[in-house]
């Protein structure tokens, strides 16, 4: 079924491209507007510059704005598209977009371009956009929209429905209607369903829910995402310190936040930017080199440590066989622990403190270390006919796994407490650090038992 749908979609794309190339604006316009806005966005992203320039001549700024809301491409790429448009066309298109999406694009433009575009917008739209532009990145204010429906507590249901009808077209979300007092304080919330089913003569204050879950405009976007997730909201109101309603954050923006945070976590675990898959190879190399050079020097510390135990290795060359086995297994354990720690920091466990989580990871490390250690002890003992050697390998592996587990769990938490991005404690960093500690543990134990397994 999916293959059939893909073939139909590809046929539609080819048909639209032919109409655009044939300079048949009427036929193209009609066929294009039959598509869903997401499909329109995908078609647009598949065009080259000359084709996009032709499309701008066929569609109105309002029609382009409709599908720009559905473009989840890199904002930097969106600014390239914006530069292709006439300034008045671009300003009108941004005006037609949801305000939070338009502001996301404006944030990536230089100040002069922003001022030039805002100057060509309706006054109130420009004022609203300027108010959103000054909020810090990754805060509730930076992802909220001011396009919502608000009513006052003393209105009747009939009056509230009339207000809703008047404002619904420009609102991003109408499932929740927010109730304000005379000085714009948020005092309640009411659902569209409640307005529909209640008597038209009732006062809003008699049917509204006075227990409103809201977030502060300065709250971190991750905590906002967690709140919406916990309460299963479609949207959440954003207030200032005095409980004035400033805007709302809708679930589609929260999905974007979760995607961004997940990509950030994956980037941290890998030590690279996983979002920019089509980046220029030279730019990608420049971005990756600092981490690789840093890890190279850390890896040289491991090499120096092995060199320090050169006499031990020459005395019992069999020890060299198991270095990569111990360091690799410990590194894997550390990366697993790191993934859990980063996840825990993104979505905090209310039932466990940092120390409790660390203790749990220690116990997990002990269990996995003992099981893995016993297994490798038996394998090496049977393979090399030397259970003392097997015990050394097993004990070293057990200790290395416990230490790697603790490091993978502790370092991100420590960085978060110090105000640094936990993603800096990336997978490659933990693995390299684990190599260093594993080699130290391994040779320290081997040195103690050397007389027992060297003939």
UniProtKB/TrEMBL annotation:
<dbReference type="InterPro" id="IPR036739">
    <property type="entry name" value="SLC41_membr_dom_sf"/>
</dbReference>
<dbReference type="GO" id="GO:0015095">
    <property type="term" value="F:magnesium ion transmembrane transporter activity"/>
</dbReference>
<feature type="transmembrane region" description="Helical">
    <location>
        <begin position="436"/>
        <end position="454"/>
    </location>
</feature>
<keyword id="KW-0479">Metal-binding</keyword>
<feature type="transmembrane region" description="Helical">
    <location>
        <begin position="362"/>
        <end position="383"/>
    </location>
</feature>
<comment type="similarity">
    <text>Belongs to the SLC41A transporter family.</text>
</comment>
<dbReference type="InterPro" id="IPR006667">
    <property type="entry name" value="SLC41_membr_dom"/>
</dbReference>
<dbReference type="Pfam" id="PF00571">
    <property type="entry name" value="CBS"/>
</dbReference>
<dbReference type="InterPro" id="IPR006669">
    <property type="entry name" value="MgtE_transporter"/>
</dbReference>
<dbReference type="InterPro" id="IPR038076">
    <property type="entry name" value="MgtE_N_sf"/>
</dbReference>
<dbReference type="Pfam" id="PF03448">
    <property type="entry name" value="MgtE_N"/>
</dbReference>
<keyword id="KW-0460">Magnesium</keyword>
<dbReference type="Pfam" id="PF01769">
    <property type="entry name" value="MgtE"/>
</dbReference>
<comment type="function">
    <text>Acts as a magnesium transporter.</text>
</comment>
<dbReference type="InterPro" id="IPR000644">
    <property type="entry name" value="CBS_dom"/>
</dbReference>
<protein>
    <recommendedName>
        <fullName>Magnesium transporter MgtE</fullName>
    </recommendedName>
</protein>
<keyword id="KW-0812">Transmembrane</keyword>
<dbReference type="GO" id="GO:0046872">
    <property type="term" value="F:metal ion binding"/>
</dbReference>
<keyword id="KW-0472">Membrane</keyword>
<keyword id="KW-1003">Cell membrane</keyword>
<feature type="transmembrane region" description="Helical">
    <location>
        <begin position="318"/>
        <end position="342"/>
    </location>
</feature>
<comment type="subunit">
    <text>Homodimer.</text>
</comment>
<keyword id="KW-0813">Transport</keyword>
<dbReference type="InterPro" id="IPR006668">
    <property type="entry name" value="Mg_transptr_MgtE_intracell_dom"/>
</dbReference>
<dbReference type="InterPro" id="IPR046342">
    <property type="entry name" value="CBS_dom_sf"/>
</dbReference>
<feature type="transmembrane region" description="Helical">
    <location>
        <begin position="289"/>
        <end position="306"/>
    </location>
</feature>
<keyword id="KW-1133">Transmembrane helix</keyword>
<dbReference type="GO" id="GO:0005886">
    <property type="term" value="C:plasma membrane"/>
</dbReference>
<feature type="transmembrane region" description="Helical">
    <location>
        <begin position="390"/>
        <end position="416"/>
    </location>
</feature>
């Amino acid at each position: 079924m999916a293959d059939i749908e893909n073939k139909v979609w590809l046929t539609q794309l080819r048909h639209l491209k032919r109409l655009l190339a044939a300079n048949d604006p009427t036929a193209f316009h009609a066929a294009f507007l039959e598509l869903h806005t997401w499909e329109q966005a995908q078609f647009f992203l598949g065009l080259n510059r000359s084709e996009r320039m032709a499309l701008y001549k066929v569609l109105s700024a309002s029609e382009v704005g409709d599908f720009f809301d559905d473009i989840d491409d890199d904002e930097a790429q969106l600014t390239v598209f914006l530069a292709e448009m006439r300034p008045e066309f671009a300003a009108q298109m941004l005006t037609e977009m949801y305000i939070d999406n338009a502001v996301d694009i404006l944030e990536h433009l230089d100040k002069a371009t922003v001022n030039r575009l805002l100057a060509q917008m309706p006054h109130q739209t420009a004022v609203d956009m300027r108010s959103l532009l000054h909020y810090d990145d990754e805060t509730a204010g930076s992802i909220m929209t001011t396009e919502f429906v608000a009513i006052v507590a003393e209105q009747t249901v009939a009056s509230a429905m009339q207000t809703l009808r008047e404002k619904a077209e420009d609102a991003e979300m109408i499932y929740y209607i927010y109730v304000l007092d005379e000085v714009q304080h948020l005092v309640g919330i009411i659902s569209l369903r409640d307005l529909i089913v209640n008597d038209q003569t009732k006062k809003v204050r008699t049917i509204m829910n006075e227990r409103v879950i809201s977030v502060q405009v300065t709250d971190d976007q991750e905590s906002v995402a967690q709140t919406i997730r916990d309460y299963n909201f479609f949207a959440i109101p954003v207030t200032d310190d005095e409980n004035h309603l400033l805007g709302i954050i809708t679930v589609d923006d929260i999905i974007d936040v979760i995607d961004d945070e997940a990509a950030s976590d994956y980037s941290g675990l890998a030590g690279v930017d996983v979002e920019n898959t089509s980046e220029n190879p030279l730019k990608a190399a420049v971005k990756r080199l600092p981490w690789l050079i840093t890890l190279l020097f850390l890896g040289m510390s491991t090499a120096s440590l092995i060199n320090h135990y050169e006499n031990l290795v020459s005395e019992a060359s069999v020890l060299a066989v198991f270095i990569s086995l111990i360091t690799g297994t410990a590194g894997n354990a550390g990366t697993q622990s790191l993934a859990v720690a980063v996840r825990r920091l993104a979505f905090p466990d209310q039932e466990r403190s940092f120390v409790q989580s660390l203790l749990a990871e220690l116990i997990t490390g002990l269990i996995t270390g003992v099981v893995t250690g016993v297994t490798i002890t038996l394998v090496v003992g049977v393979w090399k006919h030397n259970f003392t050697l097997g015990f050394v390998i097993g004990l070293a592996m057990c200790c290395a796994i416990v230490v790697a587990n603790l490091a993978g769990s502790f370092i991100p938490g420590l960085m978060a407490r110090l105000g640094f991005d936990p993603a800096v404690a990336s997978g490659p960093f933990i693995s390299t650090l684990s190599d260093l500690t594993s080699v130290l543990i391994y040779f320290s134990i081997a040195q103690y038992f050397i007389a027992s397994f060297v003939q």
